[in-house]
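Whether sequence alone determines local backbone shape is best considered at the level of individual chains. In the encoding step, the backbone of a single protein was reduced to a row of integers, each denoting a local shape. For completeness, the protein is quoted in full, as a sequence line and a line of structure tokens.
***
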Amino acid sequence: MPLNGPLIVVANHVHLVDGILLQLSFPRWINFMAKQELFRYPFLRIIFRWAQAFSVPRRGTIRDKREAVKQAKEILNKGLVLGMFPEGKRNRDGKLLPGKSGSAVIASQTGVALLPIGIIGTEKLKGISWLWKRPSIVINIGQPFELPSSDGRLTKSQTKMSTDLMMNKIAALLPLENRGWYGN
């Protein structure tokens, strides 16, 4: 992981603990984008604010989404690390879901490198029994890569191609049975 400069960390998302595991695995602080619903709970809101996470409405207006992209770009302009789960939600069975385009669009517009991560094993953290079963959890960190840069709007085909490239980089870090949508 580059030790300085802006970076976008993109990972698959299976369990609530994924963000914590990523924070503990990196030498730099990761500023996560998190769904707005999580900020409704007072305890979680305190934790997310302390962690410097910011909310994004999943079903918000175009204006809301532009504000989230603006916040993401501000983090990157400061030379910080932005963390995103491009599936847009948890895939509870550990199989990769189709990627949303937000991470790829932000990376293309800013020219910032993406660092793909594959998290394996958190799908076994169910109930309380995992405390004594202690499942193996692996965090595979890929090589940073850049998407083609774009100063203006991306076409739908450019957006899809960039999103698929990003998701395939994540899928390559997962076992074949966890690649889901990107298994081929």
